[in-house]
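STRUCTURE:
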C-alpha cells in the first residue's frame, strides 16, 4: 500500500501571517496549497447568491458539498479562486465576506460538507494546509503541525496596512474589535473550535518577520524527518 501524501498544517487566527507563510512554504517545498478559509469564504458568496442564511443549515451543507472550487496559480503570483468556473478572488476578500464565512463556519453541516473537498486536495508530493482545524480535525495525521499566532493589535495593524495599500481607508480601532470578536466566535464554537492540536508547535509571529517564521517551520520539517534532505 502506498502511504498518503505528507501534510504540513498551519492553523491559527486571521492575520497571524498563515497565508503568506503557507504560500512561501508551498513554493519552497513544491507542495500543493490548501487555503481552507477561502472555501468558507466562497461558500459565503455562493450562499448569498441563492439567498441562504445561517438558519438554512442543511441546504448550506449540501451547497458546501456540491460546490466546484478550484485554486489556480496566476502570473502575478496570487492564487485565483474559481467557483463553478467563475473567478471570485476579489469578492471573497472583503471584510463582510470574512464575517459571513465565520458565521457559516460555526455550522456542523457546513464543516462536514467541506471535508471531502479538503481531503481530495491531499495529493503527492505533499500539501500545505492553512486554516483553523487542519491539525485537529481535517488532517490529524499531518507530519508537522504549526499553530501560528500574533497579538490582536499586531494582526489588525497588518490588515490595516494591506487595506490601505488597496486604497481602502478603514478604522484601526474598529478592525481590532472585529478581530477580537471573530477570534471569540472561532474559538468558542462547539464544532472544530480554533485551538492548537496537542502535538502542534506554537509560534508567535508578533515579533518575527515572514522569513524567520518560514525558516523555523522548515527546521521543524527537517527535524521531523518529513523531508528527504
Ligand atoms: O482564514 P480566513 O480569514 O480566510 O477564514 C475565514 C473564516 O473561515 C474564519 O473566520 C474562520 C473560518 N475558517 C474555519 O472555521 N476553519 C478553517 N479551517 C478555515 C477558516
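SEQUENCE:
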Amino acid at each position: 500500500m502506498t502511504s498518503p501524501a505528507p501534510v504540513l498544517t498551519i492553523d491559527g487566527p486571521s492575520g497571524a501571517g498563515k497565508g503568506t507563510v503557507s504560500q512561501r512554504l508551498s513554493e519552497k517545498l513544491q507542495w500543493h496549497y490548501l487555503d481552507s478559509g477561502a472555501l468558507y469564504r466562497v461558500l459565503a458568496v455562493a450562499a448569498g447568491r441563492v439567498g441562504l442564511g445561517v438558519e438554512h443549515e442543511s441546504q448550506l451543507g449540501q451547497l458546501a458539498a456540491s460546490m466546484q472550487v478550484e485554486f489556480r496559480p496566476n502570473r502575478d503570483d496570487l492564487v485565483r479562486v474559481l467557483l463553478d468556473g467563475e473567478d471570485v478572488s476579489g469578492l471573497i476578500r472583503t471584510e463582510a465576506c470574512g464575517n459571513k464565512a465565520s458565521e457559516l463556519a460555526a455550522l456542523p453541516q457546513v464543516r462536514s460538507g467541506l471535508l471531502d473537498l479538503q481531503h481530495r486536495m491531499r495529493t503527492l508530493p505533499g500539501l500545505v494546509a492553512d486554516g483553523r482545524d487542519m491539525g485537529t480535525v481535517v488532517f490529524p495525521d499531518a507530519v508537522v503541525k504549526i499553530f501560528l499566532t500574533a497579538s490582536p493589535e499586531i494582526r489588525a495593524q497588518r490588515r490595516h496596512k494591506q487595506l490601505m495599500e488597496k486604497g481602502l481607508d478603514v478604522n484601526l480601532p474598529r478592525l481590532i474589535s472585529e478581530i477580537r470578536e471573530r477570534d471569540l466566535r472561532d474559538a468558542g464554537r462547539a464544532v472544530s473550535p480554533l485551538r492548537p492540536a496537542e502535538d502542534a508547535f506554537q509560534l508567535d509571529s508578533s515579533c518575527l518577520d515572514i522569513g524567520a517564521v518560514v525558516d523555523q517551520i522548515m527546521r521543524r520539517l527537517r527535524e521531523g524527518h518529513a523531508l528527504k534532505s
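REMARK: The mean pLDDT is 92.
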